Amino acid sequence: MSQPATAQVNLTVVTCNRLECTRECLESLFARTSHPYSLVVVDNGSADGSREYLAGLHAAGRVHRLILLEENLGVSCGYNLGWSQLAAEHYVKIDNDVVFQRADWLDQLVRLASVHADAAMLGFGESVSHVARQDAEAGGTLYYKGHVGGLALIRRDVFERLGYFCEDYGLYGEEDSDYGLRARLAGYANLCLWDGAAPYTAYVDHKDPNAAAFRQWKDTERQRNVERAFRLNDTLYKTGLRELRMERRLLPECVGRSCSFRPNLDYLRRFASWEARYGPLVEAIRQSEEFQVIEKDLGFNFWF
Questions:
Q1: Residue 254 backbone phi and psi in degrees, to 5
Q2: Which CATH code for domain 7-209+252-262?
């Protein structure tokens, strides 16, 4: 695949069915984004009309890169694929249930990225931790967070240091938590701006008639991830047994809108080795005095 041209901002949205949710997201993005951007959409095997809708937007030039996958390979894989399709100074991961309310949202994120070189993930929202710094230009507060979900901007220099989202987590969940964790271990902060007026709402919270079933599915997937891969990775990162820069578990080969994938065998061998060697010891490691010192010294004895 030829090296793509560089853009200032790569906005990537990953979709899988839920056509009305995607429509609300993209139409609000088109109507309420004042900063220049290029839009990449990766569809994870939708079968509800989403692909036809997205193809129409691509034909009209509103979606700049469209990848249609034949099966659902998970959100991490989709976001990484969107990331690799268009090199940019800033990458923005947007969940397809985000509904934008203000046109200055991207201007604010790009501005924050330019003045906060210590920030890895930038987004919006409050934090119960109240660990914060003031942002005079926005007239708001930047809250420190463990990670930024839903909508997050990551600069190219951060990507060059930390790599991709981790693809160990199946169809859904924990890719943003994992990235935020690695960012904090690398010495970065994750910051959310709050100036009193949310720049977006979540479709699932306000309009989705299937919200309860969707949330139950998400919670089940996330619990499985937390109990298995995330707990293992958290332990490996913090003890230095796994490096912080992330490779891809699945390697794409794309032609036009279609992509096929082959497993990264080196990656899979390393992960299997970690699981076999350290998986049975995770709880003992985490309960050890040495690990508790690591948690305290690195500031992970509390969560924000």
A1: -110, 140
A2: 3.90.550.10
